[in-house]
Amino acid sequence: MKKVWIIVTREYLTRVRNKTFLLSTFLFPLVMVLFFVGSAYLGAKSIQQNKIAVQDQSGRYKQQLSNTNTTFFGYPEQVSQSNYKELGYEGLLVIYSSDQSTPDSIRLYSYQQMGLSTDETIKSQIQKVNEDILLLERGLNRLVLDSIRKASERFDLLNYRSYKVSGSELKEDNKSLAYAIGFASGIIIYITLFVYGASVMRGVMEEKTNRIAEVIVSSVKPFQLMLGKIIGIAAVGLTQLLLWIGVLVLLSSLSSIFLPQELLQHTQQTNETMPSIVQSQAMALKAAEVRNIVLSANWPLIIACFLFYFMGGYLFYAALFAAVGSVVNEDPQEAQSLMLPITLPIILGFVMMTSSIENPTGDIAFWGSILPFTAPIVMMARIPSGVPESVPYWQLALSMTLLIGGFLFTTWLSGKIYRTGILMYGKRATWKEMMRWAFRKN
Amino acid sequence: MNTILEVQHLRKYFATQKAVDDISLSIQKGSIFGLLGPNGAGKTTLIRMITGIFYPDSGSILLNGSPFNPTTDIQKIGYMPEERGLYKKMKIGEQALYLAQLKGLSKKEAFEKVKYWFEKFEMAGWWNKKVEDLSKGMSQKLQFVTTVLHEPDLIILDEPFSGLDPINSNLIKEEIFKLAQNGSTIIFSTHRMEQVEEICDHIVLVNKGTKILDGSVAAIKQNFKEHLFKLTLAVPEHIPKHPSFDIMQKKDNEWIIKIDNNYSTNDVLLHCIQNHQTIVAFHEILPSLNEIFIRLVEGTPLTRQFETPSL
Hints:
The complex is a heterodimer of chains A (about 450) and B (about 300).
Chain A: H1 2-16, H2 19-45, E1 50-56, E2 71-74, E3 91-95, E4 106-110, H3 116-137, H4 142-155, E5 162-166, E6 169-173, H5 175-209, H6 212-217, H7 222-269, H8 274-296, H9 299-327, H10 332-358, H11 363-370, H12 375-382, H13 393-421, H14 431-439
Parallel strand pairs in A: 1-2, 1-3
Antiparallel strand pairs in A: 3-4, 5-6
Chain B: E1 3-13, E2 18-28, E3 32-36, H1 43-50, E4 58-63, E5 66-67, H2 70-73, E6 77-80, H3 92-102, H4 107-120, H5 136-148, E7 154-158, H6 166-181, E8 185-190, H7 193-199, E9 202-207, E10 210-216, H8 217-223, E11 228-233, E12 245-251, E13 254-259, H9 265-274, E14 279-285, H10 289-297
Parallel strand pairs in B: 3-8, 3-9, 6-7, 7-8
Antiparallel strand pairs in B: 1-2, 1-4, 4-5, 9-10, 11-13, 11-14, 12-13
Helix pairs in contact in B: 3-4
């Protein structure tokens, strides 16, 4: 075992000291953050105000439609389908009649696709005007109506929340959070399985093609060499994940320090204008709410399970990748075709994960998270939705036990293929030969 | 002298060929032993069994008189395979330390040994270089150092001189002699016969998975001698024929003659003197190992298949 430790140390140190490790460790979160911030920024920027010319033949809606972030209503005179573009409008809203029974009483013409939100705004504005007219017709005072509208806008700030009851405990049910965490951990495990699995395979191929294997195998058993490599790379992966988790925790704690103050300043700056006060208060409330929601997740359990399934999944597949690496020669295409039976279940796991997130208690979710081939990815999609509500303890225990048994089996199997493959040059072994190596007696 | 390695009736069959088919040999402690054979003769398979990489199908290997146990005895063996293998991206010093530690040396011991050998081979300045920056000869030296670093009892060198210039060749050759003098036993696998004649005490020739020759270099040469002699005369002149010898080749005043089994060298010399010839030189020509090798191996098919039933 001492020799395995020496191999582990070498595998770990050569990789961790490598510049690409440092780069990938620190660039990956940065790229992720940039990606999210960038897409949010672009999303915000792409919200543009569409100018809509209103040609109201009924006279009912004139000057009544209120403007929003996305839509501006103008009422130019003598506007028609032929000239609204020249007048600087993106669309023309023609109200032919206020009679709801005639089909196509209101039409929107435009020369370009308008956003969904513009469509929604126009509909809701027309609805609102209709409501107002009906209310006023029934004798409601204009002032009363305005005050009701104001009050109702405030009411929008009230939250809708769903709770789930388990025993005497009342838990806030956050489907979107469970979705996000499940999806993120599933994807990270999916990617790391490939990245570190391929790293094991490349390491084995390097040793084989450089003929180091023969030197080392005359000092240690082939199985020890394989084990040392797998454990060494596992340690690299664990280091990287822990660094990422550390960076995330650091970032989130930093944001909780800076975010409210910034929002407070924002509130003070925009004190003069009435509506923006409401807006920024809403934003502050929203931010605080998001933080509470994020904190409401069972992080210790999620992180512990994540690390377990990352390790379990990695160990399960790494041995298989090592076996493939030992069988192929220098040709990377050989490796590609041999990798297929290993990558297929991983991809299957990913597909099952996407449906398990939607339905964490369904049949696909259950079987996907029990069978060790797909369990690392699928189970991580289920766990954030609640243990033991969505994932009973016995399922978690069964899944973990099977995964441990699974990687012991794949390691044993691969060890036998590896032992023969690592010293075989020339023609690539067939599946039949590999199976014979795997199951023959010593 | 006692035996360090004894191999008895070793067999290893692969799916398509008999790689090693009933080979027995024994190697004396402190000797330099040549393991010869053409490509594909089964040398590497034999060595891999001795180094514990392969398990033999049948037969036994005794190291120092007791059955070979790969887990513990592996440290008593240093093996330098024909295909050199080093981690290209790893620093040389670390690489040597790593391989030494895998052989069971502690970190401190390994460091001292590596330092000693690096200084001896004038490699101390290379410590932080990477293997990919080395020339072929330099990495060869490094490979040799990593093989003998842990002071193994049995050192197995497969083509140790390939890619080395004459200076480095000599350096390693001297080191091999020194190691043998200090009690290490060396198995030297090659098909470069001139090196074998120079270095080895004892050889075994393997062909088609079986042993076809076993003995000391001197004895083998005697066994294969063809009674050829080189006779140099002062003046190239005609000598009348005599039943004691046949002239094989004539070149100016140098003649190569074959002496008949019923006569001795003195009969030839007497005949020359009686014919008033002045003899400048007269010596026996022993066959080179190269000639013996070619004579024994030539004409045999390269690979040996299992006998397939005729269709």
